[in-house]
Amino acid sequence: MSAPSADRPALRRGAAPDRWLVLQLADGTFPSGGFAHSAGLEAATVLGALDGAGIEAFLDASLRQIGRAALPFVRAAADEPARLAALDDAYDATLPMVAPNRASRAQGRALASAAARVWDHLGGVAEHARLGPAHHAPVFGAVFGALGVSPDDALAAYLHGAARGILSAGVRLGLIGPLEAQQLHAARAPLFGELVEAAHGLGPEDAAQTAPLIEIFAALHERLDGRMFQS
Fold it and tell me: For the domain bounded by 52-223, which CATH number is listed?
């Protein structure tokens, strides 16, 4: 990957974080806009592709795709936040469908804006969001890395947030109840560990989409007559 260009500011790492910082970043109340998106679940539901029993398969397929498509970029950006511009451009090439690409940019920009308002030295992330695609996965990694969070903690937080977002969407769509959502989330712990471990051996050049049907549903979301979520 090439170094950031002159018009894209470099990022720097912050001091080593404590547990409270990691918890704050991973908390659902952090205003990054994630709950406005369903990751294709709404379209899959409206178009009759799954019911309440099918959300587990949807969740697992989504998480496995994230493990192969997004986590390599989260890890690379967390390890070297200064590579955000190059990693962001590379990630953009992995999302050829307009709707998923646009949703990823929206979430990345929301996260960049919120993080820069909380931590002053993350202004470089927000500035990049005004210059580049600002996809969620590389921006997420860069934010965590610039704050001194380890790549493994960044991966864990990313998977946690992805599962939480899908399950929250399932609750609001009436597919499952809140307690069932928590049970499903808790049961994913072995899968989270498997995906984090697998990400150790994956670089951005290994990224691949593994769930094409989910990508198709995400692309069809904007064609729904009525929508609860942005994607």
Answer: 1.10.4190
User: Can you tell me the distance from the alpha carbon of 62 to that of 41, in angstroms, rounded to the nearest whole number?
Assistant: 10
pTM exceeds 0.90, yes or no: no
What letter represents residue 222's amino acid?
A: E
Q: Where are the domains of the chain?
A: 52-223
Rounded Cα distance between 64 and 79, Å, is 22
For residue 99, count CB atoms less than 10 angstroms from its CB and return exposed for 0-12, middle for 13-18, buried for 19 or more: buried
Mean pLDDT for all residues in the chain: 87
- 157 has pLDDT over 90: yes
Q: Show the CA angle centred on residue 172, arms to residues 133 and 44, nearest 5°.
A: 65
Q: Which of 6, 168, 202, 197 is nearest to 85 (CA)?
A: 6
Cβ proximity of 124 and 11 under 8 Å: yes
Question: Distance between CA 121 and CA 182 in Å, rounded?
Answer: 35
Three-class SS state of 134:
coil
User: What average pLDDT does this structure show over 178-186?
Assistant: 97
Instruction: Decide: helix, strand or coil at residue 102.
Output: helix
The pLDDT tens digits of the residues spanning 55-92 come to 999 999 999 999 999 999 999 999 999 999 999 999 99
Total Cβ atoms within 10 A of residue 79: 15
Class of residue 125 by CB neighbours under 10 A (exposed 0-12, middle 13-18, buried 19+):
buried
CB atoms within 10 A of CB 220: 16
